[in-house]
Amino acid sequence: MHQFQICPVLIVAMICLTLCHSVMMETLPLCIGIQGMQESQGSPGKVGQKEAKEDSGAPFDMSRVLALEKQLAALQQSLTFYTNVLQFLGSICKDGNKTFITAGKTANFSSAKSECSLAGYQLSAPKTEAENMVMQRIVKKYDKDAWLAISDEKMEGTFVYLDDKPISYSNWNPGEPNGEHQAEDCVVMQTTGKWNDSICTEKGLVICET
Questions:
Q1: Domains and CATH numbers, the chain
Q2: Is the whole-model pTM more than 0.70?
Q3: Cβ atoms of residues 197 and 185 within 8 Å
């Protein structure tokens, strides 16, 4: 019996084929799926409702507007007052609710009334002893007789305020008013605080009051 010898090369080739087959079986996917059918597009959904418009804020408050307008009017009034005060830079004295203002100017009685009126004030006239003392301090400071908003121009011997009301307070010098030559229809305060009737065309210190 002849012994067949297997070529070592053949054995190696067979081993390689076996190993390659095993490797291919392990690495190939188990199955290959078939491509599925394309899904049809669904019907469109309902259109959503629009969001309600955002509230623009609190309702209009007219009372606040009126309150602000009132405050503005008060500020404007104060501004006007202090603007006018600047025209009378000199002396400012206060007694209670009344304020006396002067710039130290002199004028006749008619011009004195006009100057105070144009500034939004009126020519001063003390109606109490306390007010008379306050005015006296100003008169002494400038050392000039000052006009009072009192006269008897309309009726000789009857002294009244500018609104024609009879005077409620007086501080006349002894023997005054004397109406000398019936020409002294206006009234001045002297540095002593006493009053004297005087000729209206003369010049006197202009003191206004508020």
A1: 73-209 (3.10.100.10)
A2: no
A3: yes
Provide the token pair at 137. Answer: 């301090």
Per residue in 20-56, pLDDT tens? 444 334 433 333 333 443 444 555 555 555 554 555 5
Read off φ and ψ for residue 208, nearest 5 degrees. Answer: -105, 160
- 113: amino acid identity, one letter: K
Instruction: Give the alpha-carbon dihedral of 108, 109, 111, 116, to 10 degrees.
Output: 130
Kindly give the pairing relationship between strand 195-198 and strand 122-123.
unpaired
DSSP code at position 173: P
120 exposed, middle or buried (CB, 10 Å; 0-12, 13-18, 19+)? middle
Q: What is the dihedral of CA 116, 119, 121, 123, to 10 degrees?
A: -10
